[in-house]
Structures
1.
Amino acid sequence: MLVWNPEFLREGFAVEDTLHPDRLVYGVPEGEAGRRAVDVLDAVYAAPLGEGTPRIVTDLPTAELVKVAANSFLATKISFINAMAELCEVAGGDVTRLADAIGVDCRIGRRFLNAGLGFGGGCLPKDIRAFMARAEELHADPAVSFLREVDSINMRRRERMVDLTVGVLDGRPLAGARIAVLGAAFKPDSDDVRDSPALDVAERLHQRSARVVVTDPQAVPNARRKAPQLRYAETVEEAVDGVDAVLVLTEWSEYRTLDPGKLTGLVASPRVVDGRNALDAQAWREAGWTYRALGRP
Ligand SMILES: NC(=O)c1ccc[n+]([C@@H]2O[C@H](COP(=O)([O-])OP(=O)(O)OC[C@H]3O[C@@H](n4cnc5c(N)ncnc54)[C@H](O)[C@@H]3O)[C@@H](O)[C@H]2O)c1
């Protein structure tokens, strides 16, 4: 008997998400076989069910679609706010305040509305592309053609980050400029660099002859294997030494809480581009830094 029981585990939270999931989905066949499958799964998930975890019993195709639909919705939410960031950039708005304002509407919600360099990793990009490919096989591609736009908004943020870096250099050519990239993992608290926006931006800058030094609290070994052409540093202090600009591309908590005053003496020019809207812009400006961010004035 085939039963479909999708998981929704986030990297870095696999145990927590297994023990305390948001929901359980059972895709089962009709009839007695399906009822037996539900009993078996209920026994397996007795602990989370005992905590009141919602359980949705459905047919096999719906269960399979739940997984890709959930990931597509999350990717769409991120690209929606990043599209608003593009508009904020031309209209002079602040996307972080925009996200706060629309996010308090409980129909929208503030979660997954952080504008910045966009999504990556081994799940969301692959899942939306696989969903489009499968829909095409089923001759239903118009239903998910919007995901192509979700993907392209996401990828545009990376090139926009390169443009902002060129802008912050204030006339100095990118070729030969020394750039510190803080963050290589696709998200904080992970050493995963698969489809990492941060590492992609570092590689794009390197391709344009910038002298890039990358650091990350956990992902340097993986990044070194994936992008051996880049230079790496073990610490922020080492990475920013003598650079013309600092880019914050993964929102690790240790980067959010960096003391800009302490870094000023290390860099050649105090210029920072906040690719994750993770820094306290006012504190950095008050410490003498030129501060730029995606989607903010
Ligand atoms: N972890 C796995 O091995 C695996 C395998 C296959 C599918 N999946 C599916 O993929 C989903 C996502 O897993 P994940 O590990 O990539 O985790 P995640 O949900 O923590 O992160 C996904 C992406 O969203 C971004 N993001 C996170 N919070 C955000 C916010 N507030 N605003 C804007 N962007 C934000 C992250 O930078 C990341 O690129 C899972 O729920 C699961 O259904 C996971």
2.
Amino acid sequence: MMRAKTAVDIHELFAQRRSPRSLDETATMSRNDVIGILEAARWAPSANNVQPWRFVVGQRGDDEFVKILSSLVPFNQAWAHRASLLVAVGGESFREDGNANPTFMYDCGLAVAQLTLEAHHRGFVAHQMAGFDAEKAAELFEGQKPIVIVAIGKQAPADQLEGPAFDRENAARERKDLAEIVLRGLPL
Ligand SMILES: Cc1cc2nc3c(=O)[nH]c(=O)nc-3n(C[C@H](O)[C@H](O)[C@H](O)COP(=O)(O)O)c2cc1C
């Protein structure tokens, strides 16, 4: 896999992680790998250790997978149907005391970041999607707010994709320069 161009060396997982769309529709995930990525998410930090994240997991071929897939917008369905696993992530927006939790989405993002990197560490790729129908996705949960759906699978050659998805598949990953995102205090 292509390494990101970084100003100094960083961990392989960050430099090589990318969000491909071409997935191997025959690949499956072992129970150990599925539990492994969920454990990585479970051990994310959260404000006051509230752990607002909730997950619905579908394995290709089961009913839960079909339900999660059908909540995605058509562009995402067109490639994500080949995922080995779809994980819908929802967040509890209120704390147990009834007050709103202002950091619930942030906390869920941290959990998804950990899940994503654990998936890559285990030889899979993980691709996050906000392109879903909010009402359909809400039906997956028990009152939690749908936040993101993650497709996890084995990367396959790009040529099974078409159009913009094909064009983007092997394009170099781009990022803003550090000088643009560090407003002050960047060491010279
Ligand atoms: C919150 C979030 C929502 C995203 N939604 C979609 C999506 O609906 N469909 C899609 O194909 N990619 C989606 N992406 C993937 C991004 O386009 C991708 O992460 C970004 O272009 C950077 O590429 P990289 O992950 O390969 O570095 C999403 C990523 C994030 C973090």
